[in-house]
Specification:
The protein is an alpha+beta fold and about 120 residues long. The chain has a single domain, classed as Thrombin, subunit H (Beta Barrel). The chain is built from 1 helix and 6 strands; from the N terminus they run ββββββα. It has one helix spanning about 100-125, and strands at about 10-20, 30-40, 40-45, 55-60, 70-80, 90-95. A 6-stranded antiparallel barrel has the order 1-2-3-6-5-4. The longest helix is centred in the last third of the chain and has 25 residues, at about 100-125. It is globular. The N and C termini lie far apart (about 35 Å).
Length: about 120
């Protein structure tokens, strides 16, 4: 049985460094990797489990930009640990992010995505 896709926005793969601080029962924190992104949230690899509904403060580092992006997000879902790795994949929904920070993040991710798309088109016969 297939699960129904509930996302409203396209999800774009990316790879960004981040730091996180959970403000709930898990009290987890540390370095993390953003794996994918959409207008309302992101998929992230965390070194420790977080709980659904927990709020997480994020600091994301955009390559080539010295000013970090700050956001607060809610854990929409948290998966099991990834086999052979000490990471957990979680989905976070933005609760708070400054419009300028969101625009900077979108600009970086979309420009990377468009660059990859153009490269694939040029490679095809």
């Amino acid at each position: 049985m297939q699960s129904k896709e509930r996302r409203k926005f396209m999800r774009i793969g990316t790879d960004l460094e981040a730091e996180y601080w959970a403000k709930g029962p898990s009290m987890a924190s540390g370095a993390a990797r953003v794996r994918d992104f959409c207008r309302e949230g992101l998929g992230i690899l965390l070194p420790a489990s977080v709980e659904r509904g927990e709020h997480v403060d994020l600091t994301m580092k955009v390559p080539g930009d010295n000013v970090p992006i700050f956001a607060t997000a809610e854990v929409a879902w948290a998966g099991e640990s990834i086999p052979d790795r000490s990471e957990v994949l979680a989905g976070l929904r933005f609760v708070s992010i400054k419009p300028l920070d969101l625009a900077r993040l979108l600009d970086f991710i979309y420009s990377r995505w468009l660059g990859n798309l153009k490269g694939k088109i040029q490679e095809s016969p």
